[in-house]
Amino acid sequence: MEFNDMENVIQHKKIFQSIFRFSSEGILICSETGIITAANPAIDKMFGYNSGKLIGRKLEIIFSQKSIKKLKLLLKNDINNVSMVQDQALLGLKKDGSQIFVKLKVRVSKHCNNQIFTIFIANITNHKKEEFLKKHLRKILKLITQHQSLDIIVKRITETLELYILDCKSSILKLDQEVGTLYNLSSPKLSYDFQQVLEGITIIPEICSCSCAAHEKKEILVSDITKEPLWKNHKALLSENNVNTAWSFPILSSTQEVLGTLTLYSHKNRKLTEFEKEVIEDLNLLAGMAIEQNNIHITLLQNQKELKGYNQRLKEEVKEHTDELMTTVQKLVETNINLEDQIQVTKAAETIAQENQVMFSAIAENFPNGIIVVVNNTFRVEYIEGQELDKLALRDLIHRGILIDNIHAFSEARKTRIKKDLQKTFDGEHLAFETEYKNNTYAVNTTPLFSNNVNNKQALLVYYNISQRKLAEQKILQTLEKEQKLNELKSRFISLASHEFRTPLSAILSSTNLIKKLNATRKVQKREKYLFKIKSNVKNLVSVLNDFLSLSKLEEGKLSLQSKYFDLIQFSKSLIEEMEPNKKEGQTIKIINKTPFIEVYLDSKLLRHVLSNLLSNAIKYSPVNAKITISITQEEKWISVQIKDQGIGIPVEEQKDIFQRFFRAKNAINIQGTGLGLYIVKQYIELMDGTISFKSNPKEGTTFFIKLPLKPKQNEKNLID
Q1: Does the pLDDT at position 719 exceed 60?
Q2: Residue 618 and residue 677: Cα distance in Å, rounded?
Q3: With contact defined as beta carbons under 8 Å apart, do 555 and 581 qualify?
Q4: Which helix (H) or strand (E) holds 496?
Q5: What are the two backbone dihedrals, phi and then psi, of residue 351, each rounded to the nearest 5 degrees?
Q6: Which phi and psi (to 5°) does residue 241 adopt?
Q7: Per-residue DSSP letters for 471-489?
Q8: C-alpha span between 91 and 59 (Å, rounded)
């Protein structure tokens, strides 16, 4: 029996070793102290290490600092009753320093009274990339649906391309249909000389891959420019810009017409991956939508301008003809002195009537933005004309002689309503009302037409398109609403300002009265206490006035950047020293940085205001003995600053309004403040091309995240150079 048990153990061990060695999923084994004792080949490949190089190393070598905290907490927990912990997503670190997203499962077992952790790891980086890409695509599509400017949209597209297609510079060119040339829309990373070469390229196949892609209406992928005839006239320029590969794609409209080209340039001789092709295909489609929408908008504006001019000319011609007719009638009346003249007048009148009929028909046919209709008392259309018939595609559906009931383009409810209005008009009423049809609003006026034949009643209906006027009315209402909100904001400002000034002034007044009563030498300490109180309240008043002054400058657009180079670490340490007198008892402010020196090019005055405001808030809203930390990290193009406190936090339902002017959270009503600080901070950061966000939990504290550019923009850099 013991021999059989031993055989089973050996057999199970061989099976485990086989699974451990050949599994495509990463498997590693570690002790409860986090020391790696075994790692299968899949783990070595996943993190870029040679076989056996991970043995004896700590888990910190393959997981980020934040992820290792989560993992160690998991390993230290007492989980005697749990054998497997499922699906923990963490951030892994490869040997070359790059990061990957991983999902792991942990199995807990015991050996010789020691806990052993078997960790199964799967690489989910591609899945995460697809999630991030979908978010970027949705943001670009939102810009298109909001009719943002073409420059903003294509800039966002090129930024997204360069984010997901590594080691590449992107370019979007728009086709000028009239002259058949391409011109630059967005090429953020290409040199000025390179952009000038691309500007005005004719779409013929021999020049470059851009013109060839537009001419052939297909993608042109050049993996090694030195071996291709394309770009032969620009080899020196490509060499100067370290470009060895060019991938060009035609941007097509919904009718498959060429709108432009999308091209990526790389210094590496390589081919596109399937994921990269999908990214380019999606962003190329969005570029086509944006350019086509922009072209439609331009065409619409031109048509509106032409139509307005045509309407004006028509009005002038109608007036001119009417004046001529009136002059002719007047002359005929003056010469009507005998019967022969009367006959001549009659004939002339008949001629005028015919001309008036022709003129009426001409006016009706060209009646701008409307329709003229004559209907008899049998509800039959006797006359109908107007330009709106073509716009609404009704000319072939409504014609002379048709009954109202036989107009199939109208619903039964609309037909009933029209006949009801016509009957009122036949009875002698003049109606004026509005109606809607195919997303257009029309002003309708009806008038009864009287004749000698009482059995043949007629009604004149004039429809005039007032959609543009309705839109103007909506804009006026929106403007009125904005003005009402502004008045509310002014009221809040007056109330806040009066409160913020009254409280410190009352404290100053009471302190000065008490000082007068404390002239004795033995009461020096009390006088100093009241003097400190006066200084503190004066400082608060200065802070309030500074907030109002900053708000005024921002609103009037008088604030401009005064950027310069300085060391951010020393700058922050100096600022912390200045904040020392403001700290409560036991409070500490600690700065966390990996490098002792970080040079930035920013406006130091604005940055000082931003950091001092956030630190003041952290001190003001945190209790005694609280810890406040400033973390500064340097990335490739950005500086990240995090300010974390242990204060009262921000209520969840009010977090969306925290950057609004004069906003104070419910839990901060009794704490001194203007409600302007965070609004001004956000405006200053955006003025420096940065971003700010936060994370807060009530009664636990708040962390603000600031991102600022590390280096000046290209045009600023040129000025500095």
Answers
A1: no
A2: 12
A3: no
A4: helix 467-516
A5: -60, -45
A6: -95, 10
A7: HHHHHHHHHHHHHHHHHHH
A8: 12
Which phi-psi region, left, alpha or beta, contains residue 337 (left: φ > 0; alpha: ψ -120 to 50)? alpha
DSSP sequence for 8-23: HHHHHHHHHHHHHHH-
Judged by DSSP in three states, 375 sits in strand
Residues 214-223 as b or e (16 or more Cβ within 10 Å = b): bbeeebbbbb
Lowest mean pLDDT among 101-105, 198-202, 354-358: 354-358
- Work out whether strand 26-31 and strand 245-252 pair parallel, antiparallel, or are unpaired: unpaired
The CB-side HSE value for 262 (13 A sphere, CA atoms) comes to: 26
Neighbour-count burial of 314, counting CB atoms closer than 10 A to its CB (0-12 exposed, 13-18 middle, 19+ buried): middle
- In angstroms, the CA 496 to CA 428 distance is 63
Contacts of 392 (CB under 8 A, 6+ apart): 437, 438, 440
Return the closest-CA partner of residue 467 out of 440, 447, 432, 434.
440
Q: What is the mean pLDDT of the chain?
A: 80
d(CA 363, CA 356): 10
Phi, psi of 303 (to 5 degrees): -65, -40
Q: Angle, to 10 degrees, between the axis of helix 604-621 and the axis of helix 677-687?
A: 150
Residue 363 structure tokens: 């006016």
Two tokens at 512? 């000065």
Average pLDDT of the segment spanning 628-638: 92
What's the rounded Cα separation, in Å, for the pair 301 and 170? Answer: 31
Please report the pLDDT score of residue 82 as a whole number: 43
Q: Is the per-residue pLDDT at 529 higher than 60?
A: no
**Residue 446: per-residue pLDDT:** 92
Task: Indicate the helix (H) or strand (E) that contains 592.
Answer: strand 588-593
Closest-CA residue to 286 (of 498, 136, 404): 136
Residue 683 CB contacts under 8 Å (≥ 6 apart), including other chains: 554
Instruction: Identify any residues that bridge with 593 across adjacent strands, giving them in sequence order.
Output: 632
Residues 6+ apart with CB under 8 A from 443: 432, 433, 434, 463, 464, 466
Contact 434, 442 (CB under 8 A): yes
Q: What is the pLDDT of residues 34-59, one digit of tens each?
A: 888 889 898 888 888 988 888 989 88
Distance between CA 206 and CA 211 in Å, rounded? 8
pTM: 0.38
Hey, what are 504's tokens?
């410190």
In the numeric block, which tokens belong to residue 525? 């300490």
**124-171: per-residue pLDDT in tens?**
877 777 777 788 888 888 888 888 888 999 898 988 888 888 788 899
